[in-house]
Amino acid sequence: MKQSLVVLLAGLLGSTGVLAQDSRRDDRARPTRKPGESRQGGESARERMIRRFDAASPRLGEPLPDVSGFTADGEPLSLRALKGDYKVLVFGCLT
Questions:
Q1: Is residue 36 pLDDT above 50, yes or no?
Q2: Is the pTM value of this prediction over 0.70?
Q3: Would strands 68-70 and 76-78 be described as parallel, antiparallel, or unpaired?
Q4: Burial per residue of 14-43, b for 16 or more beta-carbon CB atoms within 10 angstroms, e otherwise
């Protein structure tokens, strides 16, 4: 009886050491990143999106591309038709 208890206790202590060693190995394998930081280069998805948006946007002083759309009444409207006047353009969905 004592011998089986010693074997059981030794097995329990040995398995706990193995489990603790495995958890330490897992911590070293996982790289630590800040929230929002990407895996490559340290640039987050938000920063990449802002950088691409800025690169594609017209710069100050450049003419805007010809954009066409519809007014709130459903009439077609071109950006060239607004030339010469000050206007406020509101983009969005009206439904």
A1: yes
A2: no
A3: antiparallel
A4: eeeeeeeeeeeeeeeeeeeeeeeeeeeeee
